[in-house]
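Example 9 (inverse folding). The structure is encoded as follows.
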């Protein structure tokens, strides 16, 4: 039988007029990896700050190792063996790694004269314990984020700790760094220390945790053994939306159907080689592969941003040359870049300007822009794409990621796009908006006969939205999955086999 380390009972937290937490109970057992899941703003950090004594709860009770604790303060929380790795790591940037690591302990032991030999020895042991190598004499400010995080973890492990809380620890990490972190989390657990892993990323929480608590709008909506949840269930709990999980399938059509896009023998030496691709109206084709597989370069060539050295491209049966972006747009090809915030949008410009940016030719005559038409098309787009904004004059930089993405999509629909290339369509977008964007893309494909090439690393996104998934490796198409063959684990296993 597992034993509770900490038990929060019916916790409520009220900020001036705002109920951040309402009747939340959470039990973290000794030595378990527990995930606290919830969308941005759901109350995760607030709950952590209650456990770490930074905030006092407005209601409820806290028990640590069976003992009721009143007025938990930050010092009391540390004394009860709780350590938090905050999102900003709370390190001193102008001090070295060794100094940061030693400071806590030396301060706690009220050492008057710092013995630097001992400080270095302690610091070295702490870093070695993690099995990583970090220069003890480096200034913390000069370290990459992943190393800063490791220093913060090493520091937490130097005290007598029974629970380590990590607040969204993977936010700034690469895939490889996440793996290292997971390894470390498992090592920490093997020493009998419990971990509360706070996250809004489905795949991570399902991989690392043994138990899961989901909160939404400050209330607990689910808890249980992680193995009883799948991504779809967690998404449903986190968003409260009954998100469509039936995978998209292209409606059956006659064999004489005219392909929308045909690519034959397309080659750009060193980047991609002999690419053959046929896409029909109403299809969403997924394209995945590791970084450097050539997938983005292929997309850039189809959008006239990179040249091609050999091969043919046909749109609706007609050969086309795509030397410039204007050529591509003229032939009905649209591209939403991976980093829409730096490449795709003018952040300091209004929604209106952003939406009509690629349609100005069509909306002007003799160099004069038809402002009435601009206003009408913008208003229609805001409505049809469900962009949440009080006004079309709002700067795009002030919109949430999901709404910004809708502006980009809406913009391309005004150009009468036939082929829409989406590169990482929901990167950095929260789960709720993500589902809405997927729904929108599927509607566009169904209702307008659009053809979508969806480039993505998000295996669930591919499995749910694509009628075909192509995997690219070292510049070539190496695998195509169709129909029932499109499964999350199948795609991720194939991708892993490329490393
Ligand atoms: P999460 O970590 O899940 O993203 P938070 O716990 O940071 O969410 O925030 C939950 C809600 O509480 C949000 O609406 C946030 O604006 C509000 N909130 C958090 N801290 C404070 C505070 N100190 N004063 C007022 N409101 C706050
Ligand atoms: Mg938070």
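The amino acid assigned to each position is listed next.
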């Amino acid at each position: 039988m597992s034993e509770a380390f900490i038990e929060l009972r019916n916790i409520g937290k009220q900020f001036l007029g705002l109920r951040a937490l309402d009747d939340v109970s959470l039990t973290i057992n000794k030595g378990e990896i527990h995930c606290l899941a919830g969308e941005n703003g759901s109350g995760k950090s607030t709950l952590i700050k209650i456990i770490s004594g930074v905030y006092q709860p407005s209601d409820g009770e806290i028990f640590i190792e069976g003992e009721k604790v009143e007025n938990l303060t930050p010092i009391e929380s540390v004394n009860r063996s709780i350590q938090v790795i905050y999102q900003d790591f709370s390190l001193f940037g102008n001090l070295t790694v060794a100094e940061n690591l030693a400071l806590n302990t030396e301060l706690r032991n009220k050492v008057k004269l710092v013995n630097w030999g001992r400080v270095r020895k302690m610091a070295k042991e702490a870093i070695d314990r993690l099995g990583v190598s970090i220069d003890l004499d480096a200034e913390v400010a000069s370290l990459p984020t992943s190393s800063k995080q490791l220093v913060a973890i090493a520091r937490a492990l130097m005290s007598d700790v029974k629970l380590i809380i990590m607040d969204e620890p993977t936010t700034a990490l690469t895939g490889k760094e996440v793996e290292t972190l997971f390894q470390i989390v498992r090592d920490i657990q093997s020493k009998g220390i419990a971990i509360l892993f706070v996250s809004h990323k489905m795949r991570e929480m399902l991989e690392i945790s043994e138990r899961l608590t989901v909160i939404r709008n400050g209330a607990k909506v689910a808890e249980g053994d992680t193995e009883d949840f799948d991504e779809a269930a967690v998404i449903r709990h986190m968003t409260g939306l009954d998100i469509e999980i039936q995978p998209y399938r292209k409606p059956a059509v006659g064999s004489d159907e005219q392909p929308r896009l045909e690519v034959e023998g397309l080659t750009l030496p060193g980047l991609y080689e002999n690419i053959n691709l046929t896409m029909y109206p109403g299809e969403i084709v997924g394209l995945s592969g590791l970084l450097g597989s050539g997938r983005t370069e292929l997309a850039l060539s189809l959008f006239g941003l990179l040249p091609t050295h050999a091969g043919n491209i046909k749109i609706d049966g007609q050969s086309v040359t795509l030397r410039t972006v204007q050529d591509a747009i003229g032939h009905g090809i649209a591209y939403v870049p991976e980093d829409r915030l730096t490449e795709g949008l003018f952040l300091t410009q209004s929604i209106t300007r952003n939406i009509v940016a690629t349609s100005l030719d069509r909306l002007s005559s003799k160099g004069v822009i038809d402002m009435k038409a601009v206003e009408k098309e913008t208003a229609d787009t805001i409505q049809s794409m469900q962009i949440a904004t009080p006004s079309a004059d709002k700067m795009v930089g002030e919109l949430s990621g999901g709404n910004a993405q809708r502006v980009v999509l809406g913009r391309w629909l005004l150009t009468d796009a036939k082929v829409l290339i989406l590169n990482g369509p929901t990167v950095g977008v929260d789960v709720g908006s993500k589902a809405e964007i997927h729904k929108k893309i599927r509607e566009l494909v169904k209702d307008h006969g659009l053809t979508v090439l969806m480039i993505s690393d998000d295996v669930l996104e591919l499995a749910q939205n694509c009628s075909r998934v192509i995997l690219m490796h070292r510049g070539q198409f190496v695998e195509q999955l169709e129909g029932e063959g499109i499964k999350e684990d199948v795609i991720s296993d194939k991708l892993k086999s490329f490393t």
